């Protein structure tokens, strides 16, 4: 069994965050091209200069109640296996089948929920739409 009190440390210049696509302000647009619920886990620079790596945990069920979850890690994010070893150990121990169960693991390890739930283009209830080029 993994240490349930472990907290992940991304170092002084980075932090670990995750986003929940189904809770994002742009979910209605996203779901048109890919309706699968997913969590995106990112090691992001604190100074806003980008991310070191990211990977995704997807659900096979559009309603979020999955029969399985799947971790998708590309070669440029393989460092996540060692940098987030307690997370992967918890996945092996708990064998989560829903994204809520995976999210609970992330929360318990101190990974920050960075989901943008409010449209940044909305000001005082009005949507700011860029002008349309009609030339």
Structure summarized in a few sentences:
With 135 residues, this protein is an alpha+beta fold. Helix content is 23%, strand content 25%.
Describe it for me?
The protein has 135 residues and is an alpha+beta fold. Helices cover 23% and strands 25% of the residues. The protein contains four helices and seven strands. A hairpin with a 2-residue loop joins strand 6 and strand 7 (126-127). The mean pLDDT is 85.
End-to-end C-alpha gap: 64 Å
Determine Rg (CA atoms, Å): 17 Å
Helix content: 10-25%
Residue stretches low in confidence (pLDDT < 50, at least 5 long) are none
Reported for the largest beta sheet, the result is:
5 strands, mixed
- Please state the structural category: alpha+beta
Helix and strand arrangement:
Blueprint: E1 14-20, H1 27-33, E2 38-45, E3 51-59, E4 69-72, H2 80-83, H3 85-94, H4 99-108, E5 112-113, E6 122-123, E7 126-127
Parallel strand pairs: 1-5
Antiparallel strand pairs: 1-2, 2-3, 3-4, 6-7
